[in-house]
């Protein structure tokens, strides 16, 4: 039996008195594309951060690529994130002091790949997402859309088993957004990986095999689109 | 043609006569062509013939004679069946979606279920349209994008309908049938 790429079981999380997620259970199969949708404040970004191991769920279990993150310490969670997860957040979140090229190469550099190889792979991905930068270009020199392209390249460079993306095309025009989404989804799925897209953009959600709709931190409905 | 079912929805709150149905319809859809009286009476006669509505009262209050119609059990079932099915996600000609959503909101029949089913139907169609066949030219892509843009607009509007449900305004009272 093939294990899930991502499993959340009975996950709850609060910020102070605000309950962001309540007893959410969700599973993403290998090769599956799932869209988590819902109005602002429904908990979908929290869900993504918990799936990425950035936030620790206050209750419930989270398993990514066969590793239970719930009991893992910070180092173990960081390792899973680095090896198995590609993460694209809404505003790119590049490391400001590192050149864009090194930002994209970072997942490979942290895994000990030779810097020249890592940078060559990064340059290849920057080319595929359609972003032309020099070796010393810093994140501050990029527009919002270019930052999103770089963040996508960084998320894809190590061939993650699980790609997690929060509004990955929000800063891009329609055509560039479509192209980036297609690149992210098709390359990840072609390699046997899975994709979890958090979005309020219906055209992004329509690329998924399944929609999970959140409201007030609970799953309102879950339906196959394919 | 959903005008039949729309008449059933207009009768769902309470028995009404033809004049009232026309007024109610025009209030539900202020941007649509006003419903002609002739069409209302023809539709009511057809509903009665088909056992979907029945005459419950004939009023003569000094003015013109008014026949009051009510839904039959069969009529209500027909209305529920109509609202159980999402409108075809055609991208253009969204009139049917508006009719169903407004009818669901006014009658209160499984509104959340209706909106969820319509959303799914739309997303599935958008997904199909996104799978552009290899070799498709720019013209075919543009046609698909046009449909996707319309479906997306419908979905945004349905989101508003969902928000409305969460902060409901008082439902129009069904007792508006005038004597």
Automatic annotation (TrEMBL), chain A:
<keyword id="KW-0547">Nucleotide-binding</keyword>
<dbReference type="GO" id="GO:0022857">
    <property type="term" value="F:transmembrane transporter activity"/>
</dbReference>
<dbReference type="InterPro" id="IPR027417">
    <property type="entry name" value="P-loop_NTPase"/>
</dbReference>
<dbReference type="GO" id="GO:0016887">
    <property type="term" value="F:ATP hydrolysis activity"/>
</dbReference>
<dbReference type="InterPro" id="IPR015854">
    <property type="entry name" value="ABC_transpr_LolD-like"/>
</dbReference>
<dbReference type="Pfam" id="PF00005">
    <property type="entry name" value="ABC_tran"/>
</dbReference>
<dbReference type="InterPro" id="IPR003439">
    <property type="entry name" value="ABC_transporter-like_ATP-bd"/>
</dbReference>
<protein>
    <submittedName>
        <fullName>ABC transporter ATP-binding protein</fullName>
    </submittedName>
</protein>
<dbReference type="GO" id="GO:0005524">
    <property type="term" value="F:ATP binding"/>
</dbReference>
<feature type="domain" description="ABC transporter">
    <location>
        <begin position="6"/>
        <end position="225"/>
    </location>
</feature>
<dbReference type="GO" id="GO:0005886">
    <property type="term" value="C:plasma membrane"/>
</dbReference>
<keyword id="KW-0067">ATP-binding</keyword>
<keyword id="KW-0813">Transport</keyword>
<dbReference type="InterPro" id="IPR003593">
    <property type="entry name" value="AAA+_ATPase"/>
</dbReference>
<dbReference type="InterPro" id="IPR017911">
    <property type="entry name" value="MacB-like_ATP-bd"/>
</dbReference>
Automatic annotation (TrEMBL), chain B:
<feature type="domain" description="Transcription regulator PadR N-terminal">
    <location>
        <begin position="8"/>
        <end position="80"/>
    </location>
</feature>
<dbReference type="InterPro" id="IPR036390">
    <property type="entry name" value="WH_DNA-bd_sf"/>
</dbReference>
<dbReference type="Pfam" id="PF03551">
    <property type="entry name" value="PadR"/>
</dbReference>
<protein>
    <submittedName>
        <fullName>PadR family transcriptional regulator</fullName>
    </submittedName>
</protein>
<dbReference type="InterPro" id="IPR005149">
    <property type="entry name" value="Tscrpt_reg_PadR_N"/>
</dbReference>
<dbReference type="InterPro" id="IPR036388">
    <property type="entry name" value="WH-like_DNA-bd_sf"/>
</dbReference>
